[in-house]
Design a protein that fits this description.
This protein is of the alpha/beta class. It is built from 9 helices and 10 strands. The longest helix is centred in the last third of the chain and has 21 residues. Bound molecules: adenosine-5'-diphosphate (ADP) and zinc ion.
Length: about 280
């Protein structure tokens, strides 16, 4: 049996499956301190005989399996988690572990089980507790020397909101993550009405980042997932803004380029399971 854990800044998903596209049981666990979060995850797997475990985790994360600190979080991106070794902590479930960033895992899930066409350059963006981006080239993650940190790129500000990134303040994530929306407007993002200006601002901020990704990576698909993108009305607004910024420089069909996750909210967990292949 396969197991997988998707570790997010707000919530984790644990799942057991026969294969990535055949999940048997799944549980959502809210992300608290490492100790209690790991113990809840481990107890979910208690009664299963897991042969391989896939983990998609928030970062920044050491992914080089030859490194001494392989599997370690290396920044206080979530309070209390800096220096925590995710692989070591979860190896009690099963020692055969594959790990990647949450967004590389989600990108893989979409690549293998979501899109029904081959995709040379696939970009998966999550807009949730933070903003993360995973890029696959013919199914292989682009990790560079460490891994990509596109959520921390700089974009032009649209107002005087200072941004929430603990490291950079007003980077893309600092300006446009779910918690940033909530802090800027003083309301839970889930209850902000569709007609509220918040979504116009959000669609503009997301478009700035996306046009930079397009210029840098020339992707075939950009899949937008994460909690905030449950606000489906953002999609046409974002596409319009990106088209305006691109200004017909080259011909791009933005409806075909910027799309919803084909696996709904399951891209990350299906992709984490797919890491075990
Ligand atoms: P994680 O970052 O743990 O993977 P999510 O992607 O669900 O989890 O991100 C959580 C954030 O997304 C919350 O802080 C909230 O701001 C935002 N969010 C979650 N659901 C919605 C929704 N339906 N509409 C708008 N924002 C949402
Ligand atoms: Zn940042």
């Amino acid at each position: 049996m396969l197991g997988a854990v998707e570790l997010g800044g707000t919530k984790c998903i644990a799942a057991v499956a026969n294969s990535p596209d055949n999940i048997l049981f799944k549980k959502e666990i809210s992300t608290k301190g490492p100790k209690s979060t790991f113990s809840e995850i481990i107890s979910f797997f208690d009664s299963y005989d897991i042969k391989k475990l896939g983990i998609g985790s928030f970062g920044p994360l050491v992914l080089d399996s030859r490194a001494k600190d392989f599997g370690c979080l290396v920044s206080e991106s979530k309070e209390g988690w800096n220096g925590v070794n995710i692989v070591q902590n979860l190896s009690i479930i099963c020692p055969n572990i594959s790990i990647d960033t949450d967004v590389n895992a989600a990108a893989l899930g979409e690549y293998m089980y979501g899109l029904n066409e081959l995709c040379e350059t696939l970009v998966y963006v999550t807009v949730g507790t933070g903003i993360g981006v995973g890029i696959l080239q013919n199914g292989k993650p682009n990790v560079g020397n460490f891994h990509l940190e596109i959520g921390h790129m700089r974009i032009p500000p649209v107002d005087d909101f200072q941004g929430l990134c603990k490291i950079h303040g007003n980077c893309w994530e600092g300006l446009a993550s779910g918690p940033s929306i909530e802090s800027r407007w003083g309301s839970k993002a889930t209850i902000i009405p569709i007609s509220h200006e918040a979504w116009k601002v959000e669609a503009q901020l997301l478009a700035y980042g996306l046009v930079n990704i397009i210029a840098n990576h020339s992707p075939d698909k950009i899949i937008l997932g994460g909690g905030v993108m449950n606000q489906r009305h953002l999609f046409p607004m974002i596409r319009n803004n990106v088209a305006k910024l691109w200004n017909n420089y080259t011909t791009i069909d933005f409806s075909n380029l910027i799309i919803e996750p084909q696996l709904g909210n399951n891209s990350g967990i299906i992709g984490s399971l797919a890491l075990t292949r």
